[in-house]
Amino acid sequence: MRDEVARRLVHASTTAVPLSYLLVEEITWPVLQALLAAALIAGLALEAIRLLVGLDWRIFDRLTREYEEDNLAGYFLGAVGMAVVVFAFPPPPQVAVPAMLMLTIADPVSGLLSSGQLKTAKEGYVLLATFGVATLLAAPFVPPVAAVLGGAAATVADGVKPVIRGYVIDDNLTIPISAAVVMYAALTYLPASLL
User: Fold this and answer.
1) Are 105 and 138 in contact (CB under 8 A)?
2) Higher pLDDT residue, 184 or 195?
3) Predicted local confidence at residue 51, as pLDDT
């Protein structure tokens, strides 16, 4: 249980990425993109060392799950997911920031509420809590309908863990991407009267 809480705290600490853009004047969109690109390069190097060379630092033992031992770790996939939305969805409209917040806040909340065991789907009350938190995080950035649809996309990405050829599709990758895509599509294709 202690490792699970530590995992969630590390996960939530990445909220500094979207918050830095919102709160620090010097962190412009291009600077945020550069920071995430640097994080991807550093993460890729760490993962290459961990998976190919076999360097097994104690921190990896505590912060990675069993299914991540021979696959890319969740922290790296989270960095990939955030980088994708930051590069693919620059403002306006602002969908990348709430999508990242859904990953860094709603996902840890969901993880703390669930059992921590890998399941194909999470319990109903966990999904409801995830949806509520994700939707509230999007509400300051997009109209209500887009926030609800983005929250629903994040909830599905968090709540359902598909396994393809033995590889778990990690929600750290799918939460920000699916939420950003759905919010952007809603803002782009739905009539303004529905938003």
Assistant:
1) no
2) 184
3) 85
